[in-house]
Amino acid sequence: MTTATRGGDGTIRPYVGLRPYDRSEHALFFGREREARDIATIWQATGLTVLFGASGVGKTSLLHAGVLPRVEPERADVLPIARVSPRGITSLRPKVTGNPYVLALLSAWAPDRPLPALAGMTVSDFLAERPERLDRYGDPVPVLVAVDQAEELFGGPLDREEERRGLLRQLARAVEEHDGLHLLLSLREEYLASVLPHERPLGRGSRARFQLPPLTRAAALDATTRPLEGTGRFFAPGAAERLVDDLRTVPISNDEGQTTTLTLNTVEPVQLQVVCSALWESLPSGLREISVEHVNLHVNVDRFLTGFCDRMLARVSAESGVTSSEIRSWLRRTFVTEHGTRNTVYEGLHETAGMPNAVAKGLEDSHILRGEHRLGIRWYELQHDRLIGSVRQSRHPAAYLGDARLALARHNWETARGLAEEAVRASGSGETWVSAEALLILGEVAAAEGEAETALSRFEEAAGMFATLQRFNGVASALTGEGRLWLSQGHHDKAVERLRAALSWVPNDLPAHLALGQALWHLGQPRAALALLNGAVALADEPPAEALALRGEILADLGKAAEALRDLDLVRRHQRPGTIAARALALALEQRFDAARQEILDALADESDSGPVLVRAARVHALLGGAAASEGLASRALGAVTPGLPPHLRKQAEELLRRTA
Question: Which windows of the sequence hold TPR repeats (predicted)?
């Protein structure tokens, strides 16, 4: 009789979910009896055993819960199953010297020993220290060692290749020096070719390979039904069969909506665990017999797999900083063909089809993608046909729009465009607010990419849609986008017109206040701009750095040094050349000449062709007594065009030239 595990809340859990089985869960591990028995036998009889299979097929679970319990302690000396990833070793502080792959292996074999005590020790040294174990006849028993996820030995950062080769040489040396050493390597099937050159030295001519396929239908039924023994629950006739056959059935839809159904001969273990765990959690308390009706009611394979996909994407998103919407959109565009089938793409030096390689690797580790090496190149595809529907499943439009705005903030224009368009597709028909929000984002993207006519068209269309919906904030945002676009093109009168229109819809709109202040400053109305910026700062719970910076610049230009420094000191982490020059001017007006001299040098070093920067530098040099330098800078300021001088600063430059003349 099996014994189900208990979760942290004390409830019985007969299925382990996404994580691998461990040795203590041998009583729950079903469907792999033949494979576990064969591998245990081969391992004890062969110098090198290579266990290989696809990612997520259950190699780790098989080793821990299937093979280890079948090795009799009296007949073999089994070391703990190890991984040789160097990440945990290289991140330690203080740093431990030595080959991190070797240290990872030895620390897995001797987890209680301090790591510094293992530094400098070879694999042969470690094995030589261990007392020899004898069987009841006085003969030495074989020493069994296994490396799980051994692909880490054959692939990874180029700068650690020699360290990986060093561990392989040490393992070969240990096999040669210790007659009873039997090595097992468990790895993804795409790395099998990398093992071939090492099979002879690692196995001393005695070697075997074992491929682990997905579960057969009969094995999947065992893995579904037998863990329930001892839980008080059981499947009614036909119920487990319905669940397993649902997992074997894959609907495939093309872009035209035509659907065909494919029935497979096998079941992916990771998908079976996802579904069985979700079923168990959804059953009412007190239920004993799980009927076909319960399976029909509670088992929605597509929903369970979509939930699994969502969780994995969220995890990879948290690790990579790329939003879930971006990853999902990339998966759908890249790995699903127009016919609704899986597509394969190759890994580049830094990106896979436009996505950072770290994201593809994270999705592989999460069993969303599978990778393999072909012709010296790594290729990726979806782990299983069944995930196509989950990947194509659209999120709520608001989620896409939110992620599109995040992409805008990161200046990732292409991603923002793609997510905005994705939001429209996900909304279907009749979602005018989604189209309006998407047009607003697409207008910002077009403006950033210099497509002024396209941007204006999209802002105008968005404003009309928002007005129809009576969403006044949306109208104000669209008009503000138009105003900022005119401002960037030097059409300050048009910018002021659109921004004042925005404030007529939402009088307290902060972005409109700030943009209108900038436009008025460019028109030569610094005091009017100052009033707008005072309002923008008062409206915000936390004053925006952009408003404080521009207000500080205007105050410095107006000669209000103390007030200018109050603002400019708050935004020193967000300084631009114009802000640095304004701070230099304020410092000079306060007679802090040494600090002013250094600040103006910094401003001119960063941007010497800006009219506002040059005229402020001219004023600083005039206060420092440098008439010739002041004259030259004022003359350059009058001729500057990137940007040119607004009228009030042009008057300052002309006045400086008159004084020096």
Answer: 476-509
Q: How far apart are CA 384 and CA 275, in angstroms?
A: 15
Residues contacting 592, CB < 8 A, separation 6+: none
- Select from 369, 406, 364 the least CA-distant residue to 391: 369
The closest of 259, 299, 227 to 5, measured between CA atoms, is 227
Question: Is pLDDT at 622 greater than 80 in this prediction?
Answer: yes
At CB < 8 A and 24+ separation, what contacts does 426-430 make?
426/394, 426/395, 426/396, 426/397, 426/400, 427/397
Q: Beta strands 215-216 and 234-235: pairing type?
A: unpaired
Q: Which residues contact 357 (CB under 8 A, 6 or more apart)?
A: 347, 348, 350, 351
285-320 per-position pLDDT tens digit: 888 999 998 888 877 777 777 788 888 898 999 999
Give the whole-angstrom CA distance, residue 230 versus residue 305.
28
- CA angle 291/297/302 to nearest 5° reads 120
Euclidean distance between CA atoms 15 and 26, whole angstroms: 12
Pairing of strands 345-346, 266-267: unpaired
Question: Of 32-46, 285-299, 378-392, where does mean pLDDT reach its minimum?
Answer: 378-392
| Residue whose pair of structure tokens reads 């042009």 in the numeric block | 650
Asked if 240 and 280 touch (Cβ cutoff 8 Å), the reply is: no
Cα–Cα distance list, 275 to 110, 246, 316 (Å): 37, 10, 21
pLDDT, position 305 = 77
- Report the SS3 class of residue 279: helix
Average pLDDT over residues 265-292: 88
- Paired tokens of 77: 């000396």
Phi, psi torsion values for 372, nearest 5 degrees: -150, 155
CA–CA distance, 200 with 401 (Å, rounded to integer): 57
**Burial class of residue 209 (count of CB atoms within 10 Å of its CB; 0-12, 13-18, 19+):** middle
Neighbours of 513 (CB within 10 A): 27
Tokens of 601: 């040098």
Q: Coil, strand, or helix at residue 148?
A: coil
Contact between 304 and 272 under an 8 Å Cβ cutoff? The reply is no
Rounded mean pLDDT of the chain? 87
Distance in angstroms (rounded) separating the CA atoms of residues 644 and 23:
74
Q: For residue 470, what are the β-bridge partners?
A: none
Distance between CA atoms of residues 594 and 623, nearest Å: 12
Burial letters for 439-476: b for 16+ Cβ neighbours within 10 Å, e otherwise?
bbbbbbbbbeeeeeeebbebbbbbbebbeeeebeebbb
d(CA 329, CA 335): 10
Residue the block writes with tokens 């995040």: 406
* Strand arrangement, sheet containing 377-382: 345-346, 377-382, 369-374
pTM of the model: 0.57
- The pLDDT score that the predictor gives to residue 6 is 53
CA 123 to chain centre: 37
Give the DSSP H or E segment for 357: helix 357-365
C-beta atoms surrounding 588 within 10 Å: 24
Report DSSP letters for 88-107, one per residue.
HHHT-SSPPPS-HHHHHHHH
